[in-house]
Amino acid sequence: MTITVQGVIARGKGEPVELTTVLVPEPGPGEALVTVQACGVCRTDLHYKDGGIGNDFPYLLGHEAAGVVDAVGPDVTDVAPGDFVILNWRAVCGRCRACGRGRPWYCFNTHNASHKMTLADGTPLSPALGIGAFAQQTLVASGQCTKVDPAIGAATAGLLGCGVMAGLGAALNTGGVGRGDSVAVIGCGGVGDGAILGARLAGARTIIAVDVEDRKLDWAREFGATDVINSRSTDPVTRIRELTGGFGADVVIEAIGRPDTYEQAFYARDLAGTVVLVGVPTPDMRLDLPLLDVFGRGGALKSSWYGDCLPSRDFPMLVDLHLAGRLPLDKFVSETIGLDQVEEAFAKMSRGEVLRSVVTL
Ligand code: APR
Ligand code: ZN
Ligand code: ZN
Fold it and tell me: How far apart are CA 56 and CA 70, in angstroms?
């Protein structure tokens, strides 16, 4: 039976978002219906609304969410009604060449629900990142649901569904930060602060935060940065080298997605060090680096998709570390808001006033 819920949609490029009626079909094979309890407002939702991701309007926004499974399709065995889950946007297929080589976090064939949620008049909706969780209920592929300990609470749990996981994973999975390493993080929004937290968890000795806003640098210290650099007034490459015995950091994480800050990351790392690009560039961006430096400095230049996370492995583990008091994920929640305040939350995000506004239902 189709159900009627309220959801936040972007109807057209640049138009303010709208709270409207959404029809959600019952789950078919491989699908799950989830009652959303919390969903963070991520920059990617704003990109959808601004037309930066595609032109498949109307979009049902929201993708950083946690909730409870309400119903599952006929053949679903991995989750069951009543399970508390974090939604992920990379449900791995288990069969593609990446999965086949035992590297499912690179899965090239991730999937979403095949049935469409619609507007009241039947117009099909495009759910953001295949999730669409600024809604009371949403339909996803069952593999997009990862069961975790409900004691964490939905507002904090949902953060692991996107930005914070990307940052944590950039340090832990892609960067392979280890005990005693020096790490620099350029850009300290939700993603960069996630990387700082990941570096701290991994035992990094020096964690240098770089941003252009002092407020962001204050927050970065709270997450575990040992040193901070405002790159508006101080050259970050020189300062990172000074703070690391004149050499550069073992791992530099770029969490903005810009050529100029990528170049800083490239030169701020030690010889044979690692650069991790977790910030997402736009199609017009180009990079110009002396190829001899790429060769001569050695090491690894890596990209981190979604923190190279494997939700089934990483979400329950990170939730348990949080519950054990070892990962202060709740610090990312700047405010909780209603479904009708998403537009306002975009404005606060653009002004840099929040790390995460989280819609709670
Ligand atoms: N130098 C240093 N810091 C900068 C610069 C710059 N030139 N430009 C912006 N910043 C800082 C901002 O002040 C902000 O603190 O980078 C941070 C970016 O954070 P957010 O805008 O909150 O973005 P976030 O959600 O952390 O995502 C960062 O990762 O997943 C991607 O799409 C996402 O590309 C985005 C990036
Ligand atoms: Zn696969
Ligand atoms: Zn996101």
Answer: 28
Among the atoms of ligand 1, which is closest to the Cα of residue 193?
A: 26
Whether 279 lines ligand 1, by a CB cut-off of 6 Å, is: yes
User: Which atom of ligand 1 has the smallest separation from the CA of 260?
Assistant: 7
Task: Enumerate residues with CB within 5 Å of ligand 3 (an ion).
Answer: 42, 44, 162
- Dihedral of CA 31/37/42/48: which sign? positive
How high is the pLDDT of residue 43? Answer: 93
Mean pLDDT of 238-246: 98
Residue 238 Cα to ligand 1 middle (Å): 21
Q: How far is the CA of 109 from the centre of ligand 2 (A)?
A: 5
- Whether this prediction's pTM lies above 0.90 is answered by yes
Ligand nearest 161 Cα, by number?
3
**Among candidates 28, 32, 27, 19, which has minimal Cα distance to 60?**
19
Distance CA 210, CA 262 (A): 12
User: Residue 33's beta-bridge partner residues?
Assistant: 71, 139
Q: Note the pLDDT tens digit of each residue in 111-140.
A: 999 999 999 999 999 999 999 999 999 999
DSSP 8-state symbol, 124? B
Protein residue with its CA nearest to atom 10 in ligand 1: 187
d(CA 238, CA 5): 54
Q: Of 108, 110, 5, which is closest to residue 60 (Cα–Cα)?
A: 5
Give the distance (Å) from ligand 3 centre to CA of residue 44.
5
pLDDT in tens, 216-238: 999 999 999 999 999 999 999 99
**Cis preceding linkage at 236, omega within 30:** no
Question: Which phi and psi (to 5°) does residue 29 adopt?
Answer: -55, 135
What's the CA gap between 21 and 203, in Å, rounded?
48
Protein residue closest via CA to atom 36 of ligand 1: 279
Spatial CB neighbours of 299, under 8 Å, sequence gap ≥ 6: 269, 270, 271, 272, 273, 274, 275
Residue 1 in this model has a pLDDT that exceeds 90: no
The verdict on the CB of residue 170 being under 6 Å from ligand 1 is no
CB distance 235 to ligand 1 below 6 Å: no
